[in-house]
Amino acid sequence: MTGSGVEFHTGPRRVSGLPWVSVTDAQNHSCDRDDAQATPQPTTPQVVAGVAPKGWVDHPAGLEFEYLGIADNPPVRTEYNECWAHQREVHAEVSSHQRPSTVIYVEHDPVYTAGRRTRPEAYPFDGTPVVPVDRGGEITWHGPGQLVGYPIVFLQRGIGVVDYVRRVEESVIRLVAEYGLKAGRVPGRTGVWFPSDGVGPERKVCAIGIRVSRQTAMHGFALNIDPDTAGFDNIIPCGISDADVTSMGRELRRLHGPDAEVPSMLEVADRLEPILTEMMSFQPYEMSPDIPRRGHPAFLHPMS
């Protein structure tokens, strides 16, 4: 832990095998895909004899982790704009090959942020101020009880943006599975979801919105551990009006009863670290299956 309250954890360093899809400057990935086809498994050619593919640049290996405030005792929440400025500083260092790819873990003070695709009707119904940001996707809420991860990852030539997002999703799917929770992808929609059931529709537990500039991803994911999800009542999260928002805590209580133990934010961040490190090595992996889409008129947590 440094004096600034930032803790660095360095993951294993490795050579990665990558799919051959170009990354262009200033790309954005939105909350939803335009089609509802089954999520494809990205192809990942192998690195031969440890030799990196043609066109790769010399970039520091490995994946570092910054625990920004959440490892403090007591934990400290971080104001969004302060963290966004820090993201840009780290992005400049990673994209210029001055430091390894880095994941920033943080818990924010309550805030609404709106990506470039946000429609006016999705804004807070009561006129609450919103921070416009340069990521893909629409509007979302950040606040206490939600682990936000900002992977600032240099994407070597050949790493597809969609493949990168699928790997972030896969990391969270595997993480919640360690707590006995079965989540997955919904075809046509980005993020991590629980399936619809006899009580309500699909429920999103983790939202994802990124921007890629100078071959380096920024922004990232927001995993609901156990927040007060009332913050989502005031908006249409990610512009999706026919689905619900949930949390690990809510799903654990559904499964085990009201006294179910909910992990701390620091525990979740620690357990996610090796999974992200593995997935960001861009080695081939077995992608979790999609969850079936079944609409339901009832809402556990109405959003409109």
UniProtKB/TrEMBL annotation:
It comes from the Bacteria. GO terms for molecular function: lipoyl(octanoyl) transferase activity. It is found in: Cytoplasm. SUPFAM superfamilies: Class II aaRS and biotin synthetases. Residues 97-284 form the BPL/LPL catalytic domain. Catalyzes the transfer of endogenously produced octanoic acid from octanoyl-acyl-carrier-protein onto the lipoyl domains of lipoate-dependent enzymes. Lipoyl-ACP can also act as a substrate although octanoyl-ACP is likely to be the physiological substrate. Belongs to the LipB family. This is Octanoyltransferase. The lineage of its organism: Bacteria, Bacillati, Actinomycetota, Actinomycetes, Propionibacteriales.
